Structure formats: C-alpha cells, structure tokens
Amino acid sequence: MGAKKVFEADDESVILSSEPTPWTIDNLIYLDLEIWQTLIEFVRQFSEADAEQLERYGRAGFGEHLENRTPEHLMDFRRILEACLQKLETAPERLHTVMAQLELENPLIDDEYKRILQIFLTFLEKCLKKKVFYSAWTE
User: How far, in Å, CA of 57 to CA of 43, rounded?
Assistant: First the structure.
C-alpha cells in the first residue's frame, strides 16, 4: 500500500457523501498519492501556473498559514478543479498520456477521475458555505 494524500475539512460536520466512496471518510478525502499526482500533471498539460497552485493547495504547510486560509484560495482551488473536469471531458487523451508517463501502479478509468473531481468540488463548496478551511498532508 502506497502513500496517501489526505484533505480534511476543519469542521467535522462537512460530511462529503451520504454514500460510502473509496475516497471519502466523513470530512476527509483520502486518495492514493499517485491519483493526486496524476491530477496535478493533467492540469500541467494545460497550465503550468495552475498545476503549481494545485500542488500548493495540497501541501501540508499551506493551510497552517492564516494568510492562506481565505475564501479566495478555496474559490481558486475550485476554479482549477472545475477547469480540470472540463478538460477531462473534452481531452481525455491528455489524461491517458499523463497516466502512461507516470507508470501508475493502480490507474483509474476516466469516470473515476471525474468522480474524484466532483468529490473535491463538493468538499470545497461545503467549506465555502460553512466558512471553514481544510488541512492537507501526505501519509
């Protein structure tokens, strides 16, 4: 079992799904690190700046700094993921290129990446609505 990327809403009432998913536990998103890396590299296919920002949003120290814990950062995170989802719909072959380059241990099908992006969008919407931030880390 490999490394994991975890995102946890600061409010335990931010329940992400009433139905169990392979990637959520209550107020946490729990992904194989290679899934997160695949999303970053897919975004990089279209925007280096957005990929770098997405990496920042997933770093452990990002949410520890008060100046980063803003609705603007949550909205920007959402914007990047919405664009990613749109590009996945219109250019899935670019995802396949990224997946081949990364030599993934457990590649997902396109629809699974779409589901993960939807989970992230739900996560960010709930954080914005409740005016809370999140913590991220790798384990």
Answer: 13
pLDDT in tens, 32-68: 999 999 999 999 999 999 999 999 999 998 988 999 9
* CA separation for the pair 11, 133 (Å, rounded): 8
**3-state DSSP call for residue 43?**
helix
Q: Is 132 helix (H, G, I), strand (E, B) or coil?
A: coil
Tell me the C-alpha distance between 8 and 81, whole Å. 17
**Integer angstrom CA distances of residue 22 from 42, 112, 113:** 21, 10, 12
Q: List the domain boundaries for the chain.
A: 4-9+20-138
| Cα–Cα distance measured from residue 19 to residue 5, given in angstroms and rounded to the nearest whole number | 21
Query: What is the pLDDT, as a whole number, of residue 20?
Result: 77
Over 90: is that where the pLDDT of 30 sits? yes
